[in-house]
Structure formats: C-alpha cells, structure tokens
## 1
Amino acid sequence: MGNKIRIDKWLWAVRVYKTRTQASDACKGGKIKINGISVKASQMLGENEIVEIKKEGFKITYKSIQLIEKRVSAIIASGCYEDLTPPEDLPQKNDGTIIMNAEFRDRGTGRPTKRDRRDIDKFKDI
C-alpha cells in the first residue's frame, strides 16, 4: 500500500492483536522490536524488516512482506508476513490446540499481591 506504516497499525491489520490499543500497549511495554530494537507504537515499519513479538509468554518472529493498513481476513493477513519463529519457541500443539502450562496456587493462599504479580511477570518474561 505504501512505503512505510505504523507498527501498531500493521500488527492490528495482520491480526497479531485484536485491537490497535492492545498493539500500542505492547509497544509501550517493550514487547515489540523491529530489527532487534524496541520501538514505540508510532515507529514506521518497512517491507522486509524483522518484527519480534513477545506475546502470552512466547516469542514470535515475523518478517514483514506486505504492508497493509486495513484489517483483513486471517488467510489474506498470513500472506503479509513470513513466520521466522524457531520451532523451540512455538507453543506445543496437539490436534490443533495449544497446550500451555497451567499455573496453580495452593488453596487458601488468596490472590497474588502486586509484588507477587511483578515477580511472576518477570519470571515469565512478559
């Protein structure tokens, strides 16, 4: 469509995030990198650049092939990037469903405190 596009708009258009706000928040949280450098939501993305995304405890790596501004179907969106994620970083799949390790707390311990949540997020590298 053009030479460059905002990274938050592209992430939303290719269906990495459900809303542009979520994409912007991921950029603000340091979860998005272009060519190894953390970026703001307003950073311009060009074709053939490497985009690293930390999402739900996984690290996803895409190469931008086509820049689109409008949100499209998942089939069309998959043609706009090349998935470069190494197999060891992919979530384990079984019959098309993702298996994730569930987290449990001992009964009666209550909800995690704010400090516990920070420690958990740091441990999970979210």
Note: Residues 114-124 form the longest helix (11 residues).
## 2
Amino acid sequence: MKKERAKVNAILLADTPGSFITRRIPMANLEFGGIAGDRHFGVTSLADARQPMYPRGTEKLNLRQITIVSEEELSLIAEELGIEYVLPEWLGANLLVNGYPELTTLMIGSRLLFPDGTGLICMGENKPCNLPGQEIQKHYEMEPKLATRFIRAALKRRGIVCAVECPGKVYEGDEVQIFVNNLDNPMQ
C-alpha cells in the first residue's frame, strides 16, 4: 500500500438529538462503533435508503461510524457553490483533515492510522444528500438553490465513511498516516 500523510484539524461530534450537525471537541476516544454519544455510534445500524437491498430497519453492520472530510475538498465545494466557505459541522463530519486533497477518492480498504495506533478502515465515499445542502442554505440565505446545488458540487468531494478497526484516541493536531489501498490487494 502507498503511504500518504494528513493532519487532523478538527474533531467533531453529533450529539444533539434529532440533528446531524456536529460540534468541535479537542479529542475523541474511538471505540469499536465510533465515538460514544455520536449520532452514528454503534457496531450495527439499521438499514435505510442507502441500503436498498435490505428492508428498511434491518439490523446490519455499521459501515458509517466515522465521517471524514478534507479542507481542500470543502474549499472546492464552496468555490463551485460560489460561497465563502463550507464548515465540516454543516456536513455532520467527525474529522476534518488537511494535506490529502483527494480524500474522497480513497478506495474501500484504505486505512488511516493515528499516532497512538488508533486505526480506521475506509468503507467508501460519503455520498452527498440534500440535508447538508439545506444546512448550508441557512447560512447563505441570499444564494439561490444551494440545497440542491450542493449534491452536484459535493459529488466525489464529500469525504469518506469509516469503521473503527483499532480503538484508541484521536487529538486535534494529530498526524494521520493514510495507507492507500489499490486494486491488486483490496483488503490487506
């Protein structure tokens, strides 16, 4: 696997009932299941519209424990939307990194390793939906149709979803090693 590096610029938690919006925290204890108290915490989750092969509500493995976005990709989304910036909080992200501008292109099976040995495994691209677009619209009321324009602007730029492979702690400012998966050995 090819190795890259990035820096953790923010750690975020979605702990307000009924909301996907995250808030910044200085560190997180990642457990099997994600960050305790986060909206997406759990080893398993219930199937929804993203898994049409299962009846809604079917218990399945949670592949969406942690969501990660890059500053570089958020800047590209903002540029395409014609707005000043897009905050990771508005997208419900758990980690904001910089230094790896093609984060969303990471293949399933790529790994992210933090200084204390904490490890995440990439489970794929976080597909854009209109909920974050609606949140962005609230902050730029004078811009037309941001909620629907967001989906196109965020395609291949929305970040990734991960599962915790090795529990531990993640701190703001941590350097993360990214082990980029390739097609030859997808799940080493």
Note: The radius of gyration is 16 Å.
